[in-house]
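ARCHIVE CARD
Drawer: 12
Card no.: 0347
Subject: one protein chain, sequence and derived structure
Cross-reference: see card 0346
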Amino acid sequence: MPLKQWKPTNPGRRHGSVDAFTDLTKTEPEKRLIRFRPQQAGRNSQGKITVRHRGGGARRFVRLVDNLREKYDVPAKVAAIEYDPSRGARLALLYYRDGEKRYIIAPQNVAVGESLLSSKKQAEVKPGNRMPLQFIPVGLAVHAIELEPGAGAKLVRGAGVSAQLLAVEGAYAQLRLPSGETRLISKQCSATIGLVSNPDHRLIRLSLAGRRRHQGIKPTVRGKAMNPVDHPHGGGEGKHPIGLIHPKTPWGKPALGVKTRDNKKWSNKFIVARRRRK
């Protein structure tokens, strides 16, 4: 995905870049594969804010993405590569032989007209095909990985990312995730071969506060700029440091790099190597 640089007509646009969208082949989504999503503004079902600094933004439709791909051994033709406002990756529109249409996360270098297949058995090793990990050659890059057989893709779905299949031993496959963590996953779980599309998404520089507001993200005030009554970092004279032993949230809990994972979490036994080795 090539990026397009703005002309430096003002300080805000001087360092900004936007998506060129040259890889898209279709501009309008399939009407039967979209749903309207009411804006939550970071609130839960009780109306309480659980995620701060959310609200507003451009209204968008949610694309119904098929993360399960349970139409096994039925070839599907890639009809179009489309834009999804809810994610950085592209979407591939698949036409099945029975006339059904579905969206999937588009793998990198998959072009319109190609035939993709999802199977529970050995299938052709090519980007976009999906099969259990036990049938994928060791060393290949995969994405859209299941955590439990038949539960649908949960891991490695972001733009440009992939996991590497390191080994298949016994009942488990060993994968190195994009974070650097090495994890055991059942070899019966399915994964899609290849990298996720749109790898240059992470290089986009917004450079304008308004573009962040269009995404539904509101400004964040620093805690050290507040008063002591409003934040643990507040108070002091001038541009002072935090002044505490370690950073805290507005509610006084440790923040910024503090480990939050439960030491007794049931899935700890599947993690071979943490992403941060000390």
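Annotation on reverse: The chain is about 0% helix and 25% strand. The first helix runs from residue 209 to 214.
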